[in-house]
Amino acid sequence: MPEPGLPLQAQRLRPAISPRGRPADHSPLATHSGHGRRGRRPGTRGADPRADDRQHRAFHSPGQPGVRRIHQALRPPAKTHVPAVKIGRRHRGRQELLSSAPRNGGRYVTATTTDFAIEGMTCSACATRLEKALTRASGIAEAAVNFALERANVSFDPAVTNVNEIAGVVTGAGFDVSAEAFSFGVGGMTCATCAGRVEKALRKVPGVLEADVNVGLERADVSGIAGVVHADALADAVRLAGFEPHIASSSEQQALADEAHRAKEAAQLRKDSLILCVSIALSAPMVLHMIAKFLGSDFEHHPSMEVMLATPVQFIIGARFYKAAYKALRAGSANMDVLVVMGTTSAYAYSWYLIATLGADAQGKLYFEASAVIITLVLLGKYMEARAKRGTTAAIRQLMDLRPQTARIRDRDGSETQLPIGEVRSGDTVIIKPGERIPVDGRVLAGQSELDESLITGESLPVLKAQGDTVTGGAINGTGLLEVRATNIGEDSTLARIIRLVENAQAGKAPVQRLVDRISSIFVPIVIAIAALTFAAWWFSTGNFESALIAAVSVLVIACPCALGLATPTAIMTGTGAAARAGILIKDIASLERAHRLSAIIFDKTGTLTEGRPAIVDLHALDGSEDELLQIAATVQQGSEHPLARAMLTRATERGLDLPRIEDFQSFTGKGVAGHAGGREIVVGNEQLLVERGLDPSAEQKRARAWETEAKTVVWVAEDQRLIGLIAIADTLRPEAIEAVGSLRALGIETWMLSGDAVLVAEEIGRQVGVDHTRGSIKPDEKAEVVQELSQAGHAVGMIGDGINDAPALAAADVGIAMGSGTDIAMETAGITLMRSDPRLVGAAISASRATFRKIKQNLFWAFIYNVVGIPLAAMGILTPTMAGAAMAMSSVSVVSNSLLLKRWRPDFDRN
What we know:
Blueprint (H helix, E strand, L loop, with lengths): L66 H8 L22 E3 L10 E10 L4 H13 L3 E7 L4 E6 L6 H10 L3 E2 L1 E9 L4 H12 L4 E7 L4 E7 L5 H10 L3 E3 L3 H45 L8 H15 L1 H12 L5 H23 L9 H25 L1 H8 L4 E5 L5 E5 L8 E4 L9 E5 L2 E4 L1 H4 L5 E3 L4 E2 L4 E2 L4 E5 L7 H14 L3 H32 L2 H14 L3 H20 L2 E3 L2 H7 L4 E5 L10 E7 L4 H12 L5 H12 L8 E6 L3 E6 L2 E6 L1 H6 L8 H9 L3 E7 L3 E8 L6 H10 L3 E5 L4 H11 L3 E3 L4 H13 L4 E5 L5 H6 L2 E4 L5 H6 L2 E3 L5 H36 L5 H20 L12
Parallel strand pairs: 20-27, 20-29, 27-28, 29-30, 30-31
Antiparallel strand pairs: 1-2, 2-4, 2-5, 3-4, 6-8, 6-9, 7-8, 10-11, 10-12, 12-18, 13-16, 13-18, 14-15, 14-17, 19-31, 21-26, 22-23, 23-24, 24-25, 25-26
């Protein structure tokens, strides 16, 4: 028995729940252990109640409630419990309440979204079948099933249904959903009543299926739906009951879950390879016999030998096809497994018929080799497909590998403590030694070092970080020692947001996929009808039953809906992953789809084509010194956050000027500011503001125009209705700006630049970088109008910005693109985020989108052509069943392999 209060192992086992309430045969049990978290330090807050939405690949373990009891819990309860917390999609803690269009007479006004891991799908027809079953269920507003990712995303009305009922729909459709088991310590219990209180509290957590608490072992065993029940929610429930949980945080458990999932995937691949080897060993003698006959040999296997070789392949190794076909037919549908079973069983049964009717004369006329070799080839294709599909998700796995598990924290007494990442809090001082991975987002307090951020931002060169600079969790420290104050941790970290964005983009469906899904849903019935017609045509035209049967079997075997189902999602997964490695984050599939159609790009000048750090380059004082002019201008700018204001305040600080307190501060959008200081009225802004305030700027207009033709922004300064001077401010062009605009032109895209600067200043900067069109003196609220103007002219418009005032224009554009140096608001509004401030990534993002959709078109072309050409050839008897099986096995492999070529994509400027 464990010592009281010590954390216990969290046993994490999976397989999915089967429709009959027992572990699915294809999901072997596998154990993965994680350890409880260290006791929380005094003064730290409780666990973040936001749940980690990642799936967990786990299920039953010894001592846990039986699978049958869990399956029973998935059935619709007599009294529906509406969860108090919303169930989020796969966003690791970000819960979403989605507004959806009314459905079925407007019953659903809002919908909560959840995400399930699905097992048992073998082709796109399976995904279509499950999607139909979900959308027909009461309370479900929308469902999208991704065959390549093996996931279902469901929006539902929590007042009508819940996740338990949805899981029941999945199992009822003949597929499996994942469940998860938690085993953790509970401190403070003294009697059976305490255990009862804890059980009651745990069972109230949404998604919990069963909870058992042992007061003697001080342990709680909880089973729940994977991805819905999370460690933090369980811990909070135990604390609310008055006891102390000893359980790893959701982020720690997520890391364990990902590790367990990878281990399970590797184990499954090893198992599949072993089964494939056995199948090849049993089929090889028959293949060699076929080759010998082709070469003219008269050697024949004895029928008993063929039976002994083919039967294990047909009914033991091929059992998975029979089970999947049964589930599909029971659900009133048909998939690839149905075709394989019909074709191979026909050949196998016909061979037995020949033995029964011809006896010894059947030797040399049997088709056992066809059934066995077809199954072997299909298994070979599935194995190669699984290995190739792993490559399409390599990018997301690489990002997950960047998540550190521990951090070295400096306590108040100066000592250092190694803590699980889940216990680090904002404001903690984190010590990063040379060569270590940065554990959290933060700001450098002390030290200097170069960081490798290549896997996060795509920047290939190390980036120097010193005091005051920000660092990103997941980067690798160079040779220096850094002290960092933690700012964003857990689900708020940059790395967590990147992973969410990549996952969202990969899980989406392109518009063309909807058409493919509709074709897949009728594909198998059409193929069966063609096979029946082929059989009838051959039999009636030749009178030869054997020829008719073989032709029909060839038709059944060669048809493959898998290639159609994989054509789009594998290209999207690989393309978005390649873009992410280059520092381009695509929020969703809609943004990816629209990006490849863009015909016009609008740059907001500041922060995109320029550095976004304006500096004073000239001063002209009409009265007094330049320092006095600067002091007056900077005084009123204390109330402003404008980049020009920061330039003046920075120069005043550098010169050590004292700035009096400002009163009655006013800001005039797109014009300037005004206020009072020491009884004086100060106005700082553009020429238009001065005219509106009754001042005459004509005496200095010649100087102002000269500055503007040099791309300098002129700031006019007036005191007590008297012009006292001018300040020239300039922003440095980014070194990549000219190349960025040139790359867009090469892509055939029209370029625009908007600026709040005077028209002459904007035109000069536009001329320098080479944009096609420039508009100056643009106010923030006018940017969205320019976007709409171009849209009405027939352009697909992309808008690039980095500030809060760019958000409306980013939202109005077909695709909003936020620079990595921009604000959170800009990034939330944009459909694409560039992880570093390199304008060349704009053209790279469009190039990645175009490459992805070219690959989708290639995949769909070959998938359709394969079936359009292959099925007639099989029907005409040109292809034997074995040849048809080989072709079918390679069809989906070729599509996935073609998608994997996208992994080689790099931005044009980064190929050297």
